[in-house]
Amino acid sequence: MRKDRTAPQGTLHRLSLDCRGLYDNFLGDESLRVIDVYIPYGSDGQGLSLLVDLVGFTAGGPAHTNWKNFGENLPERLDRLIASGAMAPCVVAFPDCYTTLGGNQYINSTVMGPWADVLREEIVPFVETRFGCGGIGRRGVFGKSSGGYGAITHALLYPEFWSAAACHSGDMAFDLCYLPEFPRLLRTLAKKNFDIKAWIDGFHAAAKLNNDGLHDLMTLAMCASYDPVPEEPAGIRLPVSLDTCELIAERWANFIKWDPLELVKTRAAGLKTLKALYIDCGSLDQYNLVYGARRLHRALTLAEVAHTYQEFADDHSSVDYRMDESLPLLARALTS
Questions:
Q1: CA 167, CA 140: separation in Å to the nearest integer?
Q2: 327's torsion region: left (phi>0), alpha (psi -120 to 50) or beta?
Q3: Residue 230 pLDDT greater than 90, yes or no
Q4: How far apart are CA 201 and CA 175, in angstroms?
Q5: Taking a C-beta distance cutoff of 8 angstroms, is the pair 220, 196 a contact?
Q6: Which of 17, 251, 53 is nearest to 143 (CA)?
Q7: pLDDT reading at 196 higher than 90
Q8: Which residues contact 148 (CB under 8 A, 6 or more apart)?
Q9: How far is residue 14 CA from its own chain's centroid?
Q10: Spatial contact of 311 and 290, defined as CB atoms under 8 Å apart
Q11: What is the mean pLDDT of residues 263-281?
Q12: Domains of the chain with bracketed CATH
């Protein structure tokens, strides 16, 4: 629902790309992917900067272009921001990176798929070639939750590719956001004699999904992302013991090395090349992510990495309105 009905409407293109990196992937997910692309009113995209939207868990990029009740979808938000002069015109891509395990962390995994490579080597070049946008120094990435994790992790790992990033309520401080989920997961899996594949098959066969089940699936997806084991039937093993929920040091170490708070220890220097870095989180975030955000802010400050950090009085849910802060900042930096 448009907030500003006078704002000229940009054009939304629905493209598809058969991603070579997803051929014969472990999960059996489709290699043909939808990519929605927003072009501002009065432009064909030529010469504009490019922003790439990484969505949160349980969604794919086109979810952000769908009709939305009681609020704007993202193209409508972009129309309003650009028409008001708050945001420089830019192209925005919404790639579908959804997986059978319910989402994506946008990193390379032998189980989830080589998603970092697919994004950088296939999806972004495809959009840039089609519309004449982006390119070195003109690309930004943004997202919330798992998408926020993807954005900050891509900025840390690939600063030569991305020139700006915004992380909204991104996954970090894994000890606080992931470990509390494992006791419930163990109780769930015990009902299937700890047969992870059987539980996943049952989840997909269920007539109705429930919130606990979605959270359990998410936890399994994190295992498949950070500690993939394709030799296992489901490609998944847990970083905790099945009877006492005690950490298994070797497996947890595989998790932790992907925590942005660990990555920043050796990758902070690359962030200094970015034109803009934005991080925010709700002070009431129910997944404890604000504590990780504060730790990252402190680490970046100590490393003298220029960034914008904000906290706001809200939780993890329905906080797309925060993009009114981040997207103008990214677009301005990439345009200058």
A1: 11
A2: alpha
A3: yes
A4: 28
A5: yes
A6: 53
A7: yes
A8: 54, 56, 166, 167, 168, 169, 170, 171
A9: 20
A10: yes
A11: 98
A12: 11-173+260-335 (3.40.50.1820), 176-256 (no CATH)
